Amino acid sequence: MRFGMAKKKSSSLPRSSAIDREPALGPGIHGAFIELALSGSYRIRTTSGARCAAVLGDGVDPALADDCLRTGRMIIVADGPRGPAIMGALQTAPPIARDADGVVSVNAKELRMRLDRAAVIEVGAASIAADAAGVVRIEGDRMVVDMGALVRVLSAKVELP
To answer: Compositional bias (Basic residues) spans (predicted)?
Structure first.
């Protein structure tokens, strides 16, 4: 009779390793398009036509990936420790920025902003401010008001038609 520890049988199931991941993209960065998003994983198609699964790279906002899927915007992918990773989006249009004359132009059907504290627009001596408490303040020399609800006006002179 032999005493001691019994020898452990090795499992016949393969261990998870780098071999189990999606095929490597190769060195460098690659252009691709997101074809499908499903609970944190993305199916992408590279510009060479290869399809594979990818995850978001560190620091990449999921909203960016959702926008790229919705608009068909090209993304940048690279091999990472968890397999192919979405590193960002390719910018194909100039950003909204001030031109040489100091003018910022935005052409859109609608402009929405969600702010935590306040919004202020100042032009010369006139200003419009709105804060999170729901207070809107309009200051200036002259004003035209067309409101469907309550209006409180503090002014030295008020003209009503």
So the answer is: 1-10
